[in-house]
Specification:
By secondary structure, the protein is α+β, with helices and mostly antiparallel strands. It has one domain (2-44). The protein is 36% helix and 40% strand. The chain has a three-stranded antiparallel β-sheet, with helices on one face. The protein is globular. The mean pLDDT is 62.
Length: 45
């Protein structure tokens, strides 16, 4: 699964999750922050 975090014009984070046959856009900053922290944790393990 590929996760992309992009900044929007209003300063919030937009989280793009590309799943098989499914693309979800989550606009909540908390969700984006959790995803970033999860990626960092996985990368360091």
């Amino acid at each position: 699964m590929k996760v992309t975090v992009a900044a929007t014009k209003n300063g919030r984070c937009k989280l793009l999750v590309n799943a098989p046959k499914n693309i979800k856009v989550l606009r909540e900053e908390v969700a984006a922050r959790d995803a970033i922290e999860a990626r960092i944790d996985i990368r360091h393990d």
